[in-house]
Amino acid sequence: MPWWGVVSSLLAPVILIGGWTVAAGLQPVPFNAVQRSVSALGAVGMPYQWIITIALVGVGVCHAATGIALRSAADAGRALLVIGGVSSILIAVNPQPPHGGSLAHEAFSLVGVVVMTIWPLAAMRRDPGAPFGLRPAAVLAATAVTLGVLLWFTIELFHGTELGLAERTVTADQSIWPLVVVMSVLAAGKRALVPAGREAAVRSE
User: Fold this and answer.
1) Most buried by CB count within 10 Å: which residue of 115, 116, 124, 192?
2) pLDDT at residue number 201
3) Three-state secondary structure readout of the chain
4) 69: alpha, beta or left, given left = phi > 0 and alpha = psi -120 to 50?
5) Which pLDDT score, from 0 to 100, does residue 181 have?
């Protein structure tokens, strides 16, 4: 696992959560993050819109870099993670207008959430030596959690008072899982090195 892939996986959730927290805190009028979406913070004309734009671009670059670096995963999953990163960048450069919706913003948001939901399934490996984050049991459990919060978010979209909280839960969940996978890859690599190191020590004696 290249060092820059580890860094990108660490930075993605930090940039995302830090970005929306800082942007909401700087608003001249109190911003209800429980009820209002991140897209509302990044809408055209909103104070400190640039913070959300930079955050979404940063997260997109990080996800794309992690997908390229994650050589232990199946190629299809890596490709989808890269696409998820590109979708985040396209969301950032197509913000919502002050009033009404934006077809491009909503389309790229839909692509992003779908891709970031299914990439773990496509990245899954069934061989016994696979890192924990790529094994079927872990992947299916993580996907079930993501689908659960997605269902909540969908309900909030049509009828609810916690849209912002649901959206932040979904995006945080999808941003943290690549980090979990990377950490499991690093752990698997360390375990693989231990026997080799011990064998070398025995031979030297």
Assistant:
1) 116
2) 46
3) CCHHHHHHHHHHHHHHHHHHHHHHHCCCCCCCCCCCCHHHHCCCCCCCHHHHHHHHHHHHHHHHHHHHHCCCCCHHHHHHHHHHHHHHHHHHCCCCCCCCCCHHHHHHHHHHHHHHHHHHHHHCCCCCCCCHHHCHHHHHHHHHHHHHHHHHHHHHHHCCCCHHHHHHHHHHHHHHHHHHHHHHHHHHHHHHHHHHHHHHHHHHC
4) alpha
5) 97
Helix axes 136-158, 103-123, angle to 10 degrees: 160
76-83 contacts, C-beta under 8 A, 24 or more apart? 76/122, 76/123, 77/119, 77/120, 77/121, 77/122, 77/123, 77/124, 78/123, 79/122, 80/115, 80/118, 80/119, 80/122, 80/123, 81/115, 81/116, 81/119, 81/123, 81/178, 83/111, 83/115
Site of tokens 């805190």: 25
Residue 100's pLDDT is 74
**pTM summary value:** 0.89
What are the average pLDDT values for consecutive 10-residue runs of the chain, which has 205 residues? 96 96 94 93 93 97 98 96 97 89 91 96 93 96 96 91 95 96 92 52 45
